[in-house]
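Ticket #4471: structure output looks truncated?

Reporter: J.K.
Steps to reproduce: submitted the chain below (643 residues) through the standard prediction queue, then opened the result file.
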Amino acid sequence: MRYRLLVSILLCSTVFTFGQGLINPINAKKLTNIVAYEQLVKHYRYLKPDSASYFAQQGIRFAHLHKDSSGVASMLIQLGMIDDNQGRFDESAGKYRHALAIYKKAGNKKGIATVIIRIGVVELRNGNYDKAISHFFDALTLAEAKRDTFGVMEANYSISWAHLDQHHTEQALHYLVLAEKYNKQLPFSNISLNIYNNFGVIYRETKDFDKAKYYLQKGIEQSNIPEYQGLNITLINNLASVYAQEGLKEKAIELQQKALIRSREIHNYLRELQTLSGLAKTYGEANPAKAIFYFKQAVLLARQKKAYKQEMRYLKEITSLYKSQGNYQEALLMKEREHALADSFFYKDMSQHIEALKSDYELSKSKARVKELSYLNSKNQLELEKSAILRNVTLVGFILLLLILGLLYNQNRIKQQKASEIATKNNSLQLLVEEKEWLLKEIHHRVKNNLQIISSLLHSQGVYLKDPAARSAIRESQNRVYTMALIHQKLYQSDRLATIPMAEYIDEITSYLISSFDAQEIVHTQLTIASVDLDVTQAVLIGLIINEAVTNSLKYAFPQQPGVISIQLSDVGKNRFSLIIRDNGIGFADAANLSKSRTLGMSLIRGLSKQLGGELQITSEQGVQIQLLFREETQKKQPLKAG
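Returned output as attached by the reporter:
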């Protein structure tokens, strides 16, 4: 009942407030100061962005007329926020920097702090978290020095936002509580709504749904005015996500559908992307067709707006959904598009730099050729003059000899300079190639670090669990994460960026698993691994299969008795390999139904074997034996070598 009342309030208040916005709440002819222009721009910023831009430009003219430099900067910030809402981050950053220069020239520290936060928001939207947090702390320092309560509140909120965007909920909550403390001392503002929204997100992530709904509903009720429509949509979407996590998907979808209509009415594509993504996640694997439908709309919109990071994120989600349906052809198409965008995104600037160096090189060659032709022309002219003055042949010959020697010396010096320039250009190109290879290693390093964080979080959670089954599940998940992290660790620690030496990798996995079960004294391993390097994708799958098989053996094969686990990886010819994992334990009680076993470990082994395209055979005679025949993925290119 309460939910239906909330939806009714949302609909009625939307119609009422939108109607009010169209009635012209402020008479533009009576604008007598820059504050009135700012209020008018804020009113239309979401409702009619074009009108908001028009009034902001009028405000700039008014400020110039009255020689109000701070007024010009204020209107530039409003124009930047309009660009920000439309996803034009480069344009918004340019306007913010212009405003910053004006404030610095005027010595307006409060204005400086305000615009620094806006620049930090642009960095945050572009995923540059370190730069964003640095800007926010600079703004906090300025605001504290000026004892600007609103500035301190906004800076603390912004720092919390940056941590929340990285899923650092503990740090995010710390700064958000500080922001709320200052917010209670101030009049209501858009920052108040942002604080309510972020509390809702944090409590949703920590599964405290009652607190999450309290803050989000509070924000929704207070944001139904035109200038806060973007925040209103965000609050509705986050409330819908809380309902979805509670299992009330129909409520969630109803709210998200209304948010989608509203975001399209105000032409705010960022909120539209947010809503489309939320709808897709709500439908999820329960209704993958609907989820893919909304994700594809998000992909098209992100592509239209050149929001390539968002497009990559949605393509990744679609890939997972297609894989869950077994539609690997479509999943591959989506993954190829994602990789193409990633290559373009990471290496676009580098490619432009290389092209610029090539152009400079070609230009230098052209200039050298022009000088060479000029020299030849001069030489021919001297030869003609020589033939014309035969009477002074000795004197002229001596002079010409000196001139020729001088020119030859000069030409040789020029050639040496050009050779030095060419060598410098080649060194620059080599450095760029090395930088690209370093970037690949850095990516692997960061992926490994992120997986290590996940493993640490799993370990921390397992410490507080009392149920043995739950602790065992946490440990197994931690082992799977370690198996994947080990791949990325080896990639960034070695010169190889595309293949993994399997002998060393399998040895480390088995040692880690036996150690994690504290079974070094009773369980021994026999490894017979061919000297082979496999592609990263295949290595990950094989590592996970070994992880599941060895884990099952350690858990069930040797009850209170010593045992042996043997692993054999051999080349059987024609790019085919045989993986055999065997233990001499008690075997399965129901050996006849091994192929139909629905345990998580066996299900994962079958699923991973299917991804490898391998032939899986499981037998139980004097222990359990798992045999997998698979074909090596052939590499058309040589593996990358780190510089």
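Triage note (M.O.): checked the attachment and the full token line is present. The first helix runs from residue 2 to 22.
Status: closed, working as intended.
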